[in-house]
Amino acid sequence: MGWLRQFVFRLQAVFRRKDIEAELADEVQAHLDMATEANLAAGMSPEDARDAALREFGGVEQVKERYRDEHSFVGLDQLSGDMRLAVRSLLRARGFTLTVLLIVALCLGANVVIFSIVNGALLRPLPFRDPGRLVTVFNSYPKAGIGWAGVSVPHYLERRSGIAAFEDSALIRGAVVPVGDDDAPQKVNAPGVTPSFFHVLGIEAALGRTFTDDEGVYGRDHVVILSDGYWHAVFNGDRSVIGRTLRISKTTYTVIGVMPPGFHFLAYDARLWLPLCFSDYDKRNDLRHGGGGEMVSRLRPGATLAQAQAQIDALNARTIMTDPMGKAVLSVGFHTTVLGLHAFHVAGLRPVLLLLQTAVLFLLLIGTVNLANLFMVRATSRAREFMLRQVLGAGRIQLVRTILAETLLLSLAGGLLGVGVGAAAIRGMTALAANRLPSDVLPSLDPTVCLAAVGASGVLALLLALPVIWLTGQRSPAASLAVESRGGTTTRAVHRLRHTLIVAQVALAFVLLSCAGFLGLSFVRVLDVKPGFERQNLLTSVVALPPDGYKEPGQRLAFIGKLASAARSMPGVSSAALSNGTPFSGRVWDLAWFIAGATASSDEFVKEAVYTYFVTGDYFATLGVPLREGRLLTDDDYRLSRKVCVIDEEFANRHWPRHDALGHQMVLPIDPKEAERQFVTIVGVVGSVKQDDLADRADRAAVYFPIGVPSEFPVPSDFMVSVRTQFAPEAAGPGLRAAVMGIDRSAELYDMKTMDTRVGDSLVDRRTPLVLAWIFAGVSLALTVVGIYSVLSFSVAQRRREIGVRMALGARPEQIMGQFVGMGLRLLGIGLPLGLLGAWLAGRALAGALYGVTPASPLVLCCTAALLAAVAMPACLLPSQRAAHVAPAEALRSD
Amino acid sequence: MPTEKSELLQGTLDMLILKALQRESTHGFGLSQRIREMSRNVFQVEMGSLYPALCRLEARGLIRGAWGVSETNRKARYYSLTPTGRRRLRDERVKWEMLSGTINLMLRET
Hints:
Strand order of the largest sheet of chain B: 1-3-2
Strand content of chain A: 15-25%
Radius of gyration of chain B: 15 Å
Number of helices of chain A: 29
Largest sheet of chain B: 3 strands, antiparallel
CATH superfamily of chain B: Winged helix-like DNA-binding domain superfamily/Winged helix DNA-binding domain
Oligomer: heterodimer
CATH architecture of chain B: Orthogonal Bundle
Strand content of chain B: 5-15%
C-alpha cells in the first residue's frame, strides 16, 4: 500500500505543481519569519536577525530544489526527456522515420482490417443471453446428398419436450409476406417463430412484449412484433405503436412489441416477426422428414453438447420404429446433429478468415523482419554517437532507454496510423461487401480490435529494440572507437544476424507468394470449368405476377405461354424459356424425390435429393443444355400436363449406370401415400450443369419437370424468364420488360442479370480472399526486395575502405562485384529452399480452399522461385555494381 | 559534552523528526528548534535536508501536514504524527536500541 500512497502523492504533485510551489514558498517564508523573530527576541538588530535566519537556513533555492526532487516523478521527467530526444533524432532522420512509419502502418493496418472481421465473426459471442448455451439442431441424410435439413414439426415437438438437456427450444421458419394495402402489398421479410423463440434467446422486447404461448395457436396468432428498423421506417419510431394494426396477407394483425435496435437472429434479415403455428397437418407422423424450420435450443445449466447429442440419438432410435419412412431415411444415413449455435453460424466463414488472418500475420512478420534490419543499419551508423555518449558517462541503462523510446515512439505512431488505415479500409469494405457477410458480422473497430492493435505495436517495439540493444551491448566503447573511427567493418555476429534476417524474409515471402499462387491458379482452374450450359448471350430475370387475376394455375399458365411466345419473337432473340429458376439464380433447390424400381428389390423407393426444375419447352435450347438420350421436354408436355420428366447425366449414371434410365419412373408426390401416388416417366437424359458453384467437385444431379406437372408444385406466381440473344444480352433488357408489361402492366420484373454476371457473382467468395492474398503477397515481395537492397548497399557502404584497399592492391572490379553478388545469391540460396519447405506445409494447410491444384504444384513453386529470384537480382546487382565502381583513392581518403 | 556540532547519521533524521513530533505537532521552524534542543545543541539540522524529509515522510503517510496559525499569529504548516507514523517510531526505536547497543558493546570490547 505504501508505494500506492506515494504514487498518488507524487501524481498529485504532477498536476498541482503550481499550488505546491506556492505552498513551499509560504512554508519557507514562515520559517524565515519565525527564525527572524526568535533572533530579535534574543536581542539582535532587525537586519542582523534577518541575515542570521537566512544564513542558518542555507540556500533557499537549493532547499526548494531538493524538496521538488522528493515531490515529483523523476522517472516521468526523464521519460519525457527520452521522448523529446527520440523525437528530435527521428526528425533528423526523416527518410528512415517515414519508411518505418509506412511499413508499420501498412502491416498493422492490414492486420486491423482482417482482425476486425475475425473478431466480429469468430471471436465476439452472439448477442444473446448466455450465448454459450445456445445450440442448433438439424437433420442430415448424407447418402442422399443432404447435409443440412431443417427440423420437421413432429421432430421439433418431441425434441422440445423429450430432451432433458434442453431447457427450452424454438423453431424458426423464414418467410416473405405481403404487407400493407391489399391491392399493392409490399413483400416483407417476416420469419415465423414459435413463441418460445425470444425466451430461448433471452431477449426482451424494447417496447411492448414478445409472444405468449397462447399466440402460437391458429386463430389467436394475428399479432406481430416489429424490428427496430421497421418501426422507424414505417411508424416513425412512434411509441404509441403498440395496439395499432398492420394488414399482413390480407388479414389484420395487431402490433404487440418492438425489438431493441440491433436485434437480429443470425443471417435472417427480419423486418417483422410473426408467431409460428402448427396445424394438425404439420404434426402428421408421415411428415417427420418434410419441410420444417431451423431449431434452436438452450441447454440446461450444466448440460453438455455431448449429453444433448446422446439424448437425441436415443430419441431417434425410439421414434424411427414407428416412422412410416423409417427404413427409407435410414438407408440414406439419416441422423441428427446438435451443434453450438455460434460454431454452426460461422462454420462457412471460418476457414477463409483464418486463411486471411494467417496471411496477414505473415505480412506483419515480414514487415517486422524488414524493420529490424532497418533499425540495425541505423544503429550501426549511430555506433559513433552511442560510443561518444558512453564515453561521456551515459550508462547502459540510459542507452537502452534511448533505443526503447525510439522504437516505442515509432511503433505506436505507426500503430496509430495503422488503425487509421484500417478504419478507412473497414469503412470502405462495409460499404462494398456488407451483403457478402452474415448481417451480424459487420467489421468494426471495437475496443478488442484497438487493444489488439496497441498491444501489437508494443510487442513490435520490443522486438525491434532487442537486436539493437544487443548490438549496442556487443561493443565496448574502446573497441568501437577503434573500429568505427576507421569506418571499418562491424563484428561478424552483427553480420550474421542481419543475414539471418534476410534469409528469413526471403523464406516468409516465398510462403506468402506461393500461397497467393496456389489460390490464383485454382481460381483460373475454376474459371475454366465448363458449367454445362452456354453462359454467353443469355439474359435472365425474375417475373412476379400480382395476386389478383392469377389465382388459378390455369391463369398463370396462360401468362407463361403468352410471355414465352412474346419473348421468343423479340428481335435478336433466338429462343426464350420460363422456369422456376436457372442455375446460379439461387432459386432452385435440391428436393428429395423417390425413385421407383431403382434398386434390386423394385418395390422399394430410394430417396434422393436432386435439383428440381419446372420448365417450359424451350428451356434446354435457351440455356444450351445438350440432349444425351431420349427426347427433350416440349411445350405440349406442360400444356397437356403429361406425366413425364427429363433427368441429367449425373442422376442417370447414379442409378442406371447401364444407360437404361429411359422409361423408369419417379414417384410423386414427395411423400408417397398409397392412394395419391403418381408416377412420372423419364423420357430423356440431358447433360449435367453446375448448379450454383463452378468449383463443385462432383456434379449435382438434377431433374426437370414440365412446369405445373407435379401437383404439389402448382404453377408458381413468380418464375424466371431466360432469353438467348444474338447480340449483347444486356440490350435485350428493355425489350423483355416491354414484353412483360405488354401482357400485364402490374407484373413485376426484378433481379435482371446476364448469366455471365450470375456466374461471376458466384465467384465473389473466391475472388475477394484471392485479391487480398495477392495484395499481401505483393507488399511482402516489395518489402523483401527493399530488405535485400538495403542490407547489401549498407554492407557496400561500410566496406568501402576495404574495397578501396583491395582495389589498390590490384583486385579487379569484376572480382569485387562477384563477391557481393555472391553474397546476395547465397542468402537467396538459403532462403529459397526454406521457403519451399514452408510453402509445401502451407499448401497442405490450404488444401481445402484449392481447386484443381495440388498443394505442392510444381508450376506454382517454380514460378514463385523464379519471381523471387528475378526481383531479388536487381536488388543484389545495384549495390554490387556500386561496390565495383569504388575509386580506391577516394575510398582511402574518405573519413 | 562536545560543543562541536555533529553531522547527523544518515537515515536517522527521519527517526528524529518522528520523535520530535511524538508529543505535539509543530511547524518546520519549531521542528528544527526542537531537534536542536533535544540533542542539546549537538545536532544542527540542515534545512536542505529537513524539508525534503518532511515531504518524504508525508508521502509515506507517516506524518500529516496542515496549515495552521502559530503562537505568534503567523500562518504556518503544522506537521503531526499519523498512527502509522507512531507505529513506525516504535519500531525504529527498538531497532535503533538493538543497533546502538551492539555497536557500544563492540566498541567497548576493543
